[in-house]
What does this fold into?
Amino acid sequence: MIKIFQKSLYLLAALAALFYTNAEAKERLTCPSLEKAAELADMKVRHFGDTDWEIESKDEGVFYVSVGYKNCLFRFVANMSKFIPKLNKAGDEWSKANKIGNLIESDGKVFFKHHVLLPFASEQTLSLNIKMFDYLAAKAIDKAIEVQAKAEGGGERL
It folds into this structure.
């Protein structure tokens, strides 16, 4: 209950920063550059739509970021279906409340998603979020491989 209350306070603080009614503050709202942040993270970035970007990590992992420029909301998404065919095969680590991001299943595919709100943030802050998302996606894959290895040892398959 305390964790939920604490997270609610963080959300309220973020919303207060976004909806502050001072017109000058709205005019000064700046979002960090995804291109510069990806460069700081030592990853390749490609713009392919109005607000959509593709990021490729050093190990050739690919994920996507959609940017809400009005409020600097960065929505990270990675298709994990190649490694995690069903969400119930991902292991129980992803149900913990203290993890950032969520594994979800939609239309028979598994996705790893994370949203971050970064008005007035630096490219360094966004860069750290990019690195963390990539790291957690890799951890989800590692966990799925571990679950699969245990299942194969027990006669069950992913």
In short: The chain has a mean pLDDT of 81.
